Amino acid sequence: LGELERFYLALRRGEPIHEEWRKRVVTLGKMVRLKSAGVVEEGYAEAVDEDGYLLLRRPDGSLIRIAGGEATLNP
To answer: In the chain, pLDDT over 90 holds for what percent of residues?
Structure first.
């Protein structure tokens, strides 16, 4: 909870936290399957943007932003 509070206070001060968030996302650089609101997306977890969205590179090369969902690693 202390760490969550630290991030919350940083956001309230207008400080960016996406770099810290990016360090903690274990799916970055890996092939993943994401399920969100009943929609399944697969691709390469490329990055986290400044708003905290996961940037997912689809097999067709398109890039989408994902706000949240259930992620599993794809072999």
So the answer is: 43
